[in-house]
Protein: Response regulator
Organism: Pelomonas lactea
Amino acid sequence: MSKGKILVVDDDRLVLATLSYGLTQAGFEVIDADNGDDAILLAREHRPELALLDIRMEGLTGFDVAAYLREYLQTPFMFLSAFADEATVAKVKELGAVAYLVKPLDISQIVPAVEAAFARTGTPPPAPAPVAAPPSELPHALDPTALAVGVLMHRYSLPRDEALTRLMSLAAADGHSLPEQARRIVDAVELLARPGAR
């Protein structure tokens, strides 16, 4: 059974093919487009549950597509971009992206971020002001960082040090602290493990 339907948009056909293949292998139903106009038409037709958007494209940009998705389809989206300048980051925040990944990334880094985004989109968007995280259901004895490393080791057959490095890269890409990123991964896994989860 599909983990969810995702629209992937990038004007680099090689990147698009790599992302589409990797996400399909990870169990997602993928719809892909190499420009913003097609992306909007496909989103209207297929109603994806999440969109992964490149920002800089000819014609309609990823920001244009995101604004449309938010306004008309209420589709959550995340950005994948080689640019991390202040103006770009500010625009990403303003549009309310669920995640912002900075290229270059390999698919093994993108899949957990997509899975975490799918896990988060089942809940209302967080308030802009920082809100205290709800107390975890996990016993305090379990360190979320160690658990997240274990998840990555298991999922990608990695040795512990490489899994930790990957977790650190994800945290940096998402702009989170290591424990926060670890908690997100653990929460996503717990959500997927619930009865009735896709």
